[in-house]
Design brief:
CATH topology: Rossmann fold
CATH superfamily: Glucose-6-phosphate isomerase like protein, domain 1
Number of domains: 1
Shape: globular
Number of strands: 5
Strand order of the largest sheet: 2-1-3-4-5
Helix content: 40-55%
Low-confidence stretches: none
Largest sheet: 5 strands, parallel
Number of helices: 8
């Protein structure tokens, strides 16, 4: 069976050094992302914050961890010494609420159920999914589209349905979960740090950290 070019690894490795270098080469796929998508995401996030609207974030598994890292960095670090005061909610953060919805309603509704209670006009959704096809992710994206809330979608593999549903689709072309998630995590840091340095209350970058 011939594997597609976005598959990794294509062979077994006996030395971690060789694996390391090839893994990093694969991670460089993020350089191929259309910079206009990154610019669009930065502008949408910044304008949403300045309008005092809410940013909702979610994902499953490793993508849930990235979602919660957004919550940490955007509230703690992005706000520090900058003019930005983000309102940000991770729909993946409450295990009590998620398990209650999954048990009593449906696991496919764990994100959309929360969004129906919390989101308002002008809010945006950052949705992270390597496959782009998880049913709970797609249900949320469809709800957001119905309510005309903008979606920034981070996907991997072939992008799945999320790529098509997103207003701004940022796609890491890899079928390796680690590389896809690493790419999404790096882009999260790039967006946050870019917006923070742009909006620092001082012109001195020595205040950055």
């Amino acid at each position: 069976m011939k594997l597609s070019k976005n598959k990794f690894p294509l062979k077994k490795y006996k030395k971690i050094g060789n694996f390391f270098h090839d893994y990093i080469d694969q991670l460089n796929k993020i350089k191929k992302i259309d910079i206009r998508k990154i610019e669009g995401a930065a502008k949408l996030i910044e304008s949403t914050i300045k309008k005092n609207k809410t940013i909702f974030i979610c994902g499953n598994g490793g993508s849930a961890a990235i979602s919660n890292h957004y919550l940490c960095d955007y509230i703690k670090l992005l706000r520090s010494k900058s003019i930005l005061k983000p309102q940000i909610v991770s729909l993946a953060t409450s295990v009590e609420l998620i398990t209650a919805i999954a048990n009593d309603v449906s696991y496919e509704e764990i994100f959309s159920y929360q969004a129906k209670c919390l989101s308002k006009k002008g809010d945006i959704f950052i949705i992270i999914s390597s496959s782009g096809n998880s049913k709970n992710i797609i249900n949320l994206a469809r709800y957001a589209k119905k309510k005309k809330n903008k979606i920034i979608g981070f996907s991997g593999f072939d992008g799945g349905k999320l790529k098509k549903l997103s207003d701004i689709s940022i796609h890491v072309d890899s079928s390796n979960y680690g590389i896809s998630e690493d790419g999404h995590h790096i882009l999260m840091h790039i967006l946050m740090q870019y917006l923070r340095q742009k909006n620092l209350t001082s012109n001195l970058l020595k205040t950055f950290f």
